[in-house]
Design a protein that fits this description.
Layout (H helix, E strand, L loop, with lengths): L17 H7 L4 E5 L4 H12 L13 H4 L2 H4 L5 E8 L7 H5 L6 E2 L8 H20 L4 E4 L7 H7 L4 E2 L5 E2 L7 E8 L19 H5 L5 E3 L2 E2 L5 H7 L6 H7 L2 E3 L3 H5 L25 H5 L3 H7 L10 H14 L4 H8 L7 H29 L1
Parallel strand pairs: 3-10
Antiparallel strand pairs: 1-2, 2-7, 4-7, 5-6, 8-9
Length: 370
């Protein structure tokens, strides 16, 4: 359990300006979070006991620290949580998902890698606070340390955790990143925690291609396409390959189905604009990328997370799921003897799936003609 002690109730005269200062730094909002995280820690421990973290071994390292900001950064008494909207003006996601010859990349990964951007802007916000409060100690976080980031954002009044386990906001949906400033400034949390507005809706559960959302608020990462195509360094289990479809890096289906995302705004931030036409790329073209080309075109992007062999593995699976064609089969055959065993194994599977689909199509055509 967290040893957090509530900061003094006295409110600094500049505290109400944090949201305004955050927006000036490019964020959508920011607020001080309550640190009552006991139930969230219990939820994490149940998740780990179920083994749903898959091969994300780092999640098992000292889970109690995630609920104790002062253990992660000694001296911390307050946490400021911020959210940054990223929804890019990109090719329509649904149209790409429906086109089996094109690759779908999760919308958050089309532009600049958010990790460094978020931390740089959080530092800007901390420096702005410092001009009003005087020197203080702090650490900025964004997917970079053991922290219950969604729970802290919820406790700051920035949204609620939806049934798909993502943070949701009534006016912004879920197309945003979150990050924190851990600080020794004693700041009271001014906002109420938002209530859950998911109601009886389970659109995210129903749409999930691999049934990774096994129950409301419960996600088995081992089944999640984002895990399978990014965090997973080994083979994608055959039972999930067909469901992966043409998703080669992450998955947005639960967000695309969520009614609250009707209110999400497009981001005008150039950092999140799609690079190299990756909002609607052709699978065959991506599969032809050399390692040098991949390194050049993914520089400064979250796409690097999958690694080059993982990238080819993912594209091979998508090509196996593509409409059968001589061009697709030729693209796969060109990597049948790839130097990486992981790639070769997925190419073999994809060639077999292509052959089976072609045979089924010919058989169906013959039946229609007879």
């Amino acid at each position: 359990m967290s040893q957090y002690k509530s900061p003094p109730s006295q409110v600094p005269d500049w505290l109400p300006l944090i949201g305004e200062w955050a927006r000036a730094c490019g964020f959508a909002d920011a607020a001080v979070a309550r640190q009552e995280l006991g139930e969230d820690l219990a939820h994490l421990r149940r998740w780990l006991q179920d083994g749903w973290q898959g091969r994300m071994d780092y999640m098992e390292h000292d889970p109690a620290m995630r609920a104790a900001p002062a253990a992660l950064r000694p001296g911390t008494v307050s946490v400021i949580s911020a959210r940054l909207e990223y929804r890019p003006d990109a090719a329509a996601a649904e149209a790409i998902l429906a086109d089996g010859d094109r690759a779908y990349i999760s919308r958050y990964a089309l532009g600049r890698d958010y990790h460094k951007l978020m931390r740089a802007r959080l530092k800007q916000l901390a420096q702005r606070i410092e001009r009003a409060a005087g020197p203080f100690g702090y650490r900025v976080l964004c997917d970079s340390a053991p922290a219950l980031e969604k729970a802290l954002a919820r406790n700051a009044g920035l949204g609620w955790i939806g049934k798909h386990t993502l943070l949701l906001h009534r006016q912004a949906g879920s197309w945003f990143f979150i990050g924190e400033i851990y600080t020794d400034l004693p700041l009271p949390a001014a906002r109420e925690v938002q209530k859950d507005h998911c109601g009886t809706c389970q659109a995210c559960i129903d749409i999930c291609p691999t049934r990774a959302i096994v129950a409301p608020y419960r996600l088995d990462a081992r089944r999640c396409i984002s895990y399978l195509t990014i965090e997973n360094r080994g083979a994608i289990p055959e039972e999930f390959r067909a469901a992966v479809g043409n998703r080669i890096f992450g998955c947005d289906d639960c967000q695309l189905a969520c009614p609250w995302n009707r209110y999400a705004r497009l981001s005008a931030d150039p950092a999140f604009a799609p690079r190299h036409g990756l909002d609607a790329p052709r699978l065959g073209e991506l599969f032809g990328w050399s390692r040098d080309e991949w390194q050049r075109k993914t520089e400064g992007m979250a796409l690097r997370r999958a690694g080059y062999p993982g990238f080819l593995r993912n594209v091979a699976v998508a090509l196996g799921n593509a409409p059968p064609s001589a061009a697709t089969q030729a693209a796969l055959a060109a990597r049948a003897d790839d130097a990486d065993a992981l790639v070769r194994e997925h190419v073999r599977w994809a060639l077999g799936r292509q052959a089976a689909a072609a045979a089924a199509r010919e058989s169906g055509d013959g039946n229609r003609e007879s």
